[in-house]
Write a structure and sequence with these properties.
There is one protein chain. This protein is mainly α. It has 9 helices and no strands. The longest helix is centred in the middle third of the chain and has 17 residues. The relative contact order is 0.09.
Amino acid sequence: SSGKKALALLKTMEHLGIKPDIRTLTLFLQNVVKGRNDAAFLVAMAATNRLQQAYDLGKDSYVRHSLMDACASVSIKYRDEAIKQSLTNLHEIRTSGEVGPSTYGIVSKIVSKLCRGHKQSHKIAVRCFELCCKDGWLTHEAKLRFQNSMPEATWVRMYTDKLSRMGEEPPEWSRKVVG
């Protein structure tokens, strides 16, 4: 898989004495996520932690988004840890002003995939939807995923009841979405 190839390349670089940088870490994480297997989250977290400690690498927007994307590829055994990590990454992204077009697409994917059946799913979905609207990044894709992650009564309260009399979304919900 692409994740195994990325890991092998990373080990080869280290063996040759080539110091990975933040871009190397980002490319590694993107390839791990492409593999889409249940181990992507664990591999991404382990490699990121190891590289950050060994080479004093920080996190930039790409690393945070890639780590968050890796959270969607996890076995049920590590679901709680992945949800916690993705919410931590979302907080870091929002705090550092790095929210962009893909942020809530990734968040809504995590909510729809990991939170279904989770004891806190209702609260997580509602809070992430609220943040998405507050940040102005509600896309059609994110809206559908959030809707499918909530009971219908909650969706009506969170979304439908807030539509204008003309049935339109408040413009601030998607003010940053282009196109």
